[in-house]
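Supplementary Methods. Inverse-folding protocol.

Structures were first reduced to a discrete structure-token string of length 154. This string, shown here, constituted the complete conditioning input.
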């Protein structure tokens, strides 16, 4: 009998929690997915085209891009961190610019909840996982974790 009472209470708690999430999440609109995708493209295409202005409109002023790297000599792992100014300087200097022209990109909006979103951008060499936020009524990249693709095209 105690097991049934516990189960009923658990179901009630889960139902109330789910209702709260729906209430507090705010509306999700198809236009948000399009805006998140557009911000992700501004980020990636701005970088690969060397277009610092386009990249800047996609970045939060305090955006951070991180990658775990391993020292080839010591084997020690560390986190390489780039801030907004580092990324904009790199774009102006053409660090990501491809000499063969535009880079093929695949962009997927993985999740969106209220003013938060996650997207994945894949090029032939890299994969970026973007955390985006709605900031001043537009979607911008707040954080990026990235790495290389060992087998291009995956």
């Amino acid at each position: 009998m105690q097991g049934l009472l516990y189960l009923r209470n658990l179901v009630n708690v889960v139902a109330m929690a789910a209702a709260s999430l729906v209430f507090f999440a705010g509306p999700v609109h198809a236009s948000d997915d399009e805006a998140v995708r557009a911000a992700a493209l501004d980020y990636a295409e701005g970088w690969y085209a060397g277009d610092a202005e386009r990249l800047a409109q996609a970045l939060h002023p305090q955006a951070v891009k991180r990658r775990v790297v391993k020292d080839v000599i010591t084997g020690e792992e560390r986190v390489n961190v780039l801030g907004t100014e580092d990324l904009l300087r790199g774009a102006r200097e053409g660090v990501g610019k491809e000499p063969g022209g535009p880079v093929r990109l695949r962009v997927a909006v993985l999740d969106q909840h209220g003013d938060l979103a996650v997207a994945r951008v894949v090029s032939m060499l890299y994969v970026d996982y973007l955390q985006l936020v709605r900031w001043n009524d537009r979607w911008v990249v707040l954080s990026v974790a990235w790495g290389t693709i060992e087998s291009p095209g995956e």
